[in-house]
């Protein structure tokens, strides 16, 4: 897993600035999750997070969500990057393509994907628009406000509990991971 090569793939295939930032955020959360769960391949998990939306600007999956994921796998295979379990995790982060969540790796990416956008949305409502202003209490409060960041899949975020991690611990882990790269995220 060569991170420099993965970044070159991201920069080649994704031009939408907020998706690039989102990709870095999911990478950071996946790296932290791998570390927390122990004995996981931290680099592989991080690369899955970094590249999970590689097809964002390649296919019009917004009109047909079943297309989201398979094209990413195609791009990764064309570049001889990744492993079968990484491909399955990337596919499983979008169940609308017909994939099912069967492993901890898949469950982690499924949960990590929406929480980064959710935390970003919370940061953006603060006057300074900084992650340093976001508190765990804000995240848990906003989870109950279904109109706030309505597109964030709360069920996916809470599914982290199936890995033995409470939602509060996951939210704090994710916030901390994103804060570590706040300059990259411009938050």
Compose a concise summary of this entry.
InterPro entries: HD/PDEase_dom, HD_domain. With 187 residues, this protein is an all-alpha fold. It has helices spanning 3-13, 17-37, 42-51, 70-78, 84-92, 104-125, 136-144, 154-158, 167-180, 182-185.
Which structural class is indicated by helix and strand composition?
Answer: mainly alpha
Q: Give me the number of helical elements.
A: 10
H and E order: HHHHHHHHHH
Q: Taking Cα atoms only, what radius of gyration do you get, to the nearest Å? A: 15 Å
How far apart, in Å, are the first and last alpha carbons? Answer: 27 Å
Named at the architecture level, the CATH assignment is Orthogonal Bundle
Main β-sheet description: none
């Amino acid at each position: 897993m060569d991170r420099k090569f993965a970044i070159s793939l991201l920069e080649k295939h994704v031009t939408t600035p907020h998706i690039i930032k989102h990709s870095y955020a999911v990478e950071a959360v996946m790296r932290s999750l791998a570390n927390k769960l122990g004995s996981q391949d931290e680099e592989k998990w991080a690369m899955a997070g970094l590249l999970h939306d590689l097809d964002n600007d390649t296919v019009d999956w917004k009109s047909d969500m079943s297309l989201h994921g398979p094209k990413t796998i195609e791009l990764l295979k064309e570049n001889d990057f990744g492993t079968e379990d990484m491909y399955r995790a990337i596919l499983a982060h979008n169940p609308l393509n017909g994939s099912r969540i069967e492993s901890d790796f898949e469950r982690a990416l499924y949960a990590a994907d929406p929480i980064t956008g959710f935390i970003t949305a919370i940061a953006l409502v603060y006057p300074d628009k900084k992650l340093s202003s976001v508190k765990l209490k804000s995240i848990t409060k906003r989870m109950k406000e279904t109109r706030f960041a309505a597109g964030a899949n709360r069920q996916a975020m809470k599914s982290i509990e199936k890995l033995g991690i409470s939602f509060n611990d996951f939210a704090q882990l994710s916030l901390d991971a994103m804060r570590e790269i706040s300059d990259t995220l411009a938050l």
